[in-house]
Q: What sequence folds into this?
């Protein structure tokens, strides 16, 4: 029974003897019914750690277990929320939107606005036109957006709804209410690609549909666009903008969702920050566009290069080399020298890397996450002398990514010890960790189960992270972002060293106060 | 503020939110909103329109049929593997978010927090996914040999492309001799997660209940009961189980938090089914009554008043020995819960609460707040039916704003108008109200605390509400330079 002076929740309540007895009785009851067999559990548990199991596991063709990716509309919503007073609108069931909003909310600890037009069985039979007619009108009346960004769910895609015709139809029936409202749209079927595909499709569609055609463009000298990609680190957006601002005030971020998920206490308003609509609508006039995530912007790149005939560059400003390339690209495009402040930051970063390298050098890492995130992170690990033993990318694009990753790994003195695992899930990773163990894992929240199973310490970097607070507020881009990565990883290595050496008179050689 | 003024304010709040809608939507929404009082003859609890299509274009907090089946009913059954059949998203978003606790070795003999999916690609949509599903079932049995069954939870495309998942399940069941259940809970079905609960119950009825072999050698006692509609969020079912065992009953099944397949199958051996979440599991309780003659009884384990009332009601079904033990248990815990109330009531008395959740909570938790001297001034359900609102009438204590399928816009307006001291709703709403400086508790999953069922759990509930209401952080919302009477 609870002690009123020291009330405890389930964590400790269920440790009390009376509850332990309840749980033991239930377990025994389950055993008596034949629901569980403790001896078998032990046997199978050990088998799952073997090379035999690994081979069977890696041979899987049909079932995916513990994926490390999400579906298209999630990315489309992030893209939409990067623009000022924009309401993401999902043409589909509200169930999907409830999931998208919860997922982002759990990661950012912030509200996530997004509506749906609540398609159900009648829409499955007759199509979702009626939903869209009412939905756009209601959304506009209630949330007064300056722009609606429509994406779709797999349901709408399977029944083949024509967004262009539907939106035109909705406008015609809205008695003028929607006449001046930009409504952009993208098809984002969940059975194609992943959340980064959805980001790409929505970004491309918004830019195409908001901007005039190339013969109407008026090139503004020195104007540059930056597209961040599916970026869960709000600090990275801020950092990139700060670096760009050191070169020019004519560099604009297209799809800047930093403020949307970083509003202060003292009141709530639906929309915050974002790329201003007049910037979004004239993006074609820039001289060049830099994408920070090559594989989150494949289709967007085609529009900018081929339709807009604009210079298009990709830079991945994670780690030292990635940031160097980004900074040099900005210097080249703006015709300016690298600012002293950035030179100083680079010097400080390299100094810090030289201070800390012994703790990362030769350590083995398993890293999983989105394609561009991995290119940046692995590059940094290699720069530090770490070994990216397993690089797992569930949503690896078919073309290009593996070669890019191989090129990065080739720079490592341990290149032969590194393996790339495109299209594999986290249950595959479990087998890899048991058979070819590493010192540390780097990835999202779902690695914590692998940590429990395999004992491999998890360094939380990636998306989503639900079980730790405020990491997304930091940057992992730019020299300062690389310093954050260095700090997180090095200190995790040191935490682990302390953990392994803390037992008094047993393991406490190297339990040092100075490092 | 007296009840008359509160009632007027509540009615005014409804009028104000309706103003912004286009005419068609306003007409629709007006039917879902109302005010009721305990003494009201035909108030909102009797008349509120519910279980209807959500107005398009709003931020509804509702989920889908898949969420109701996989996320609520089937997902917590621990020794089965539940496949999210279709594209990758649904399984990923619903993974491990509901805190359905269980004891077992995850990945070996228990699978609740894992995500199994057929991860559809375009090819599967075009050519159908039945072959892939069949292969997936075989792979599962090879890699997870201790699974005691598989359920196939359909996502939207499955029904739309017309895959025959029942046929695949039937073949696999025959080949593997393990329960294999195809659940057609596509998200587009129905208007909310509610239909998913119903569909899930129907499949338990059709696929689990007929499994007489699974209960053949089960030895019953006179005191066997089953807990129905407790998903063991934060350990709720364990905090319930202990009380039932203490009064001398034997809990033979928990549906479905920390449940094994066998527990579902043996429930018809119970002498009484105890139904907590009426909304999600009244269907199967009725079926067991009709098919097997097992009576069922609703109970409420939120707060000591309701828990005591329910324990007496449950004991009354059995003999005097149980009734005697129930009184002893009640007496034993009442001393503790009285002390909890003495400790927290002075800090919480008179505070007003607005609720917005699903299932049974919009009515069931009212008593727990009242035990702490708090008043619920607004409540509503994400996916209730008319009978839920009728049941709510018994629990409201004063004029109460009733809102069905309230969307983000309306809830924000209502809260701003009624200015409650605490909002208790879901994670999507949480940060909206906290930004306003309002204490908030997430009442779908107990805000990562709990349990909240039973006497011991009431202590957790009281402590959590105190933590929410009396934290110093809410005092920091307004900057010192914006505060009135600075330096006065």
A:
């Amino acid at each position: 029974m609870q002690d009123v002076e020291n009330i405890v929740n389930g964590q400790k309540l269920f440790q009390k003897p009376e509850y332990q007895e309840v749980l033991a009785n239930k377990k025994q009851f389950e055993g008596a019914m034949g629901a569980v067999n403790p001896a078998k559990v032990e046997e199978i548990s050990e088998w799952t750690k073997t090379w035999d199991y690994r081979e069977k596991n890696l041979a899987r063709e049909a079932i995916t277990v513990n994926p490390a990716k999400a579906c298209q509309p999630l990315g489309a919503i992030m893209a939409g929320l990067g623009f000022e007073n924009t309401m993401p609108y999902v043409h589909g069931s509200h169930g999907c939107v409830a999931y998208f909003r919860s997922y982002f909310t759990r990661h950012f600890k912030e509200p996530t606005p997004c509506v749906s037009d609540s398609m159900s069985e009648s829409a499955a039979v007759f199509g979702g036109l009626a939903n869209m007619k009412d939905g756009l009108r209601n959304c506009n009346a209630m949330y007064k957006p300056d722009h609606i960004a429509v994406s779709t769910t797999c349901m709408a895609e399977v029944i083949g709804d024509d967004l262009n015709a539907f939106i035109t139809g909705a406008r015609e029936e809205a008695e003028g209410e929607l006449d001046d409202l930009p409504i952009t749209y993208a098809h984002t079927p969940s059975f194609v690609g992943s959340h980064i595909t959805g980001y790409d499709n929505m970004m491309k569609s918004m830019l195409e549909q908001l901007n005039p055609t190339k013969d109407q463009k008026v090139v503004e000298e020195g104007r540059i666009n930056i597209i961040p990609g599916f970026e869960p680190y709000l600090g990275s957006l801020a950092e990139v903008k700060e670096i760009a601002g050191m070169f020019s005030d004519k560099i604009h971020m297209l799809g800047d969702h930093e403020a949307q998920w970083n509003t202060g206490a003292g009141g709530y308003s639906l929309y915050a920050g974002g790329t201003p609509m007049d910037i979004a609508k004239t993006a074609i006039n820039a001289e060049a566009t830099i994408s920070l995530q090559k594989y989150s912007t494949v289709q967007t790149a085609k529009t900018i290069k081929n339709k807009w005939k604009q210079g298009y560059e990709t830079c991945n400003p994670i780690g030292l080399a990635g940031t160097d390339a980004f900074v040099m690209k900005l210097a080249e495009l703006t015709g300016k020298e690298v600012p002293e402040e950035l030179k100083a930051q680079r010097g400080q970063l390299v100094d810090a890397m030289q201070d800390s390298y012994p703790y990362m050098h030769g350590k083995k890492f398993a890293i999983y996450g989105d394609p561009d995130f991995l290119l940046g992170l692995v590059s940094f690990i290699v720069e530090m002398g770490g070994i990216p033993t397993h690089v797992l990318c569930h949503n690896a694009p078919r073309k290009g990514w593996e070669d890019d990753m191989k090129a990065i790994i080739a720079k490592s003195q341990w290149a032969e010890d590194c393996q790339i695992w495109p299209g594999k899930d986290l249950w595959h990773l479990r087998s890899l960790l048991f058979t070819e163990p590493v010192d540390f894992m780097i990835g999202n929240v779902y690695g914590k189960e692998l940590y429990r199973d395999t004992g491999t310490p998890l360094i939380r970097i990636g998306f989503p992270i639900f079980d730790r607070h405020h990491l997304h507020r930091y940057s992992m881009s730019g020299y300062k972002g690389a310093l954050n990565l260095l700090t997180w990883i090095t200190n995790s290595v040191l935490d682990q060293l302390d953990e392994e050496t803390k037992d008094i008179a047993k393991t406490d050689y190297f339990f040092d106060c100075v490092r | 503020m007296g009840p008359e003024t509160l009632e007027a304010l509540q009615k005014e709040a409804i009028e104000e939110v309706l103003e912004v809608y286009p005419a068609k939507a306003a007409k629709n929404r007006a039917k879902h909103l109302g005010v009721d009082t305990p003494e009201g003859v035909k108030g909102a609890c009797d008349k509120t329109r519910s279980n209807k299509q959500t107005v398009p274009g709003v931020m509804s907090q509702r989920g889908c049929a898949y969420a109701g089946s996989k996320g609520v009913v089937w997902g917590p059954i621990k020794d089965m593997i539940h496949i999210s059949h279709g594209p990758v998203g649904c399984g990923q978003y619903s993974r491990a978010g509901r805190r359905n606790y269980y004891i077992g070795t995850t990945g070996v003999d228990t699978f609740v927090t894992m995500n199994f999916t057929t991860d559809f690609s375009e090819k599967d949509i075009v050519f159908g996914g039945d072959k892939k599903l069949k292969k997936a079932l075989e792979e599962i049995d090879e890699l997870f040999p201790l699974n005691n069954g598989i359920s196939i939870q359909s996502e939207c495309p499955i029904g739309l492309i017309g895959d025959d998942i029942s046929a695949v399940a039937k073949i696999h069941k025959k080949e593997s001799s393990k329960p294999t259940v195809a659940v057609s809970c596509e998200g587009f079905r129905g208007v909310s997660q509610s239909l998913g609960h119903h569909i899930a119950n129907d499949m338990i009825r059709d696929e689990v209940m007929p499994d007489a072999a699974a209960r053949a050698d089960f030895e019953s006692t006179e005191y066997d009961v089953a807990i129905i509609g407790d998903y063991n969020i934060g350990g709720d079912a364990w905090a319930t189980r202990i009380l039932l065992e203490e009064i001398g009953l034997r809990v033979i099944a928990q549906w479905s938090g920390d449940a094994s397949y066998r527990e579902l199958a043996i429930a018809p051996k119970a002498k009484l089914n105890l139904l907590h979440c009426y909304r999600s599991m009244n269907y199967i309780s009725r079926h067991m009554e009709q098919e097997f003659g097992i009576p069922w009884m609703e109970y409420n384990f939120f707060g000591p008043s309701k828990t005591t009332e329910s324990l007496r009601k449950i004991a009354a079904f059995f003999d005097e020995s149980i009734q005697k033990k129930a009184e002893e248990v009640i007496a034993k815990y009442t001393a503790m819960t009285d002390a909890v109330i003495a400790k927290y009531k002075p800090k919480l008395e008179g505070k007003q609460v607005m609720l917005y959740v699903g299932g049974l909570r919009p009515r069931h938790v009212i008593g727990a707040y009242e035990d702490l001297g708090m008043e619920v001034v607004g409540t509503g359900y994400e996916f209730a039916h008319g009978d839920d609102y009728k049941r709510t009438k018994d629990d409201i204590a004063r004029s109460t704003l009733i809102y069905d399928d309230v969307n983000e816009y309306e809830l924000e307006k209502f809260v701003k108008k009624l200015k409650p001291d605490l909002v208790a709703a879901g994670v999507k709403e949480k940060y909206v109200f906290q930004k306003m400086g309002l204490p908030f508790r997430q009442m779908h999953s107990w805000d990562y605390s709990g349990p909240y069922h039973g006497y011991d759990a009431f202590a957790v509930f009281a402590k959590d509400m105190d933590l929410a209401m009396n934290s110093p952080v809410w005092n920091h919302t307004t900057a010192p330079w914006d505060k009135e009477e600075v330096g006065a």
Summary: The CA atoms of residues 124 and 159 of chain A lie 7 Å apart.
